[in-house]
Amino acid sequence: MATGRVYVVTHDAELGLDVACTTLVAACASGHAEWITKDPSSYLGLPAVLSGEVAECLHQGDLRIFRIKAGDRGVCVRILKELDFIGVAQGSLILVEGADSFVVSESVDTDAAAWQQWAERSGCTVLWMCPRPAGQPDHEADFLRLAHRFSGLSRLRKRDGNVHWDVYYWFADGGVIADKSFRLDTDGHGSWWVDQRGTLNAEAAERAVDEDDVFVTRAALPGGRSAPDGWRVFETAEQMKEALSSARAPTVVINYSAGSPLEMLARLIFEVRRSIGPQIKIAVKEDGGRLRHSHEQLLLNLGANLVIPSETGFARMQSLLKSIQGQTFSGALPPDFEEAMTSVVAVEQAGYVAPANFMGAVSNVMERAQVLGIHNALVRLSLTPGLGILETLRYCIMKRPGDLCTADDESIYVFLFACEEQDIGATLDRLFRLPVSVLFTAESRFLSAEDITGALAEFNLRATEAHYEDFTAALASGAPPTMQPSAGYGPAVAAGRTPIRPPFSAMQHALKLRTVHP
């Protein structure tokens, strides 16, 4: 630790005292230390060797112990005045045991700032030690929000029978350590040190700090049982997602209830994987039914590591979660969910389709999209008088795979792949180079799979009888549109102004007709 800085160590309750005393003894070997605690005699219960070393430091005058009354809230800043009053040697270590209980939540930033300024002014090193009682919320998230006040944040905990020092970040004279975990060794007499002491590098480091953390939705716990110590349980997946904002490599267990929307789960998995990276482990726990094989493969492609069958007991579930420890996700993810969805569903066709082939092309896209259970939309747009079909089609630029269009004698049909109803207007505005309200007088929307299929069948029947013109070759020529609409919006467009949408005389919904007045 460097002088003039404040550090924080959270720790399992049973580990704090011996590690604190080891740190104090080490500080006294080359200088002076002050120990602020609620129980000044607690060191007497340590192994004889370590307690004897503490007593020797006290006898030599290298260590002073100050007692704080339990439950004395708001005392954190007052301690600083007393330290100034009694005088503290420059370069001393100030170890505050149970510091979290001294900080008032509503003034924690102010208190931390006061200690930061005091450490810089006095040239002393401050170490806050904060216990983590079993089953109680962790403090790390609170301290991470105050990272600008502290020069180091780490935790001490037991796992797999060993004691580990997990470092979030730690500034020292020799450099910076971040996101590392070190195993601690002991001499059996209460003293601790870092394994491969003196080599704080990649060879001494182990896995990420939160490698063994488990985040789980309550519904994913079989039989409604309670979670083991150390597991963080969330009522909803959204709460879990928010808590994962500063995570790197924990295990995440999300439940999937039979019949629930698969798209929501797929989006959550993709967003968590995309934002956190390849080291986080994502498991899906089935609840009340089995995912189809195609659905399971979809979730694995979008970022999940494991799907746990519905009938799996808790002991087996723990074994399966242990089996994915250390795994990294090697799949390449697109930058956004829609693109990821398109690549997974493997839709390739986009743009204009001849009328005779339109029903087959859309049906193919819908069949592939059914794997994800996503929402599509079909929109029939009635042309403004004076505009020709070909000229209007040239204003439409479709690049996203799965978006298709065709036309009859009076309307253009636009199929929007993976498009929610509330996004239809913005999507149409993006596809057409002129305002939709200028090009068309009305629109009909078909949103459910049944309505889309029915509208396609009706169009296909008319196309078979009327033999609507195929504009594939004309559009491929790349000729720009030349006609301007004869409706009353031409001057507004020419002046660079976009009329407010929608001035349609009527907007039709596949299930309900409603008139919209401009």
From TrEMBL:
Superkingdom, taxonomy of origin: Bacteria
Listed GO MF terms: cyclic-di-GMP binding
Protein's UniProt name: Cellulose biosynthesis protein BcsE
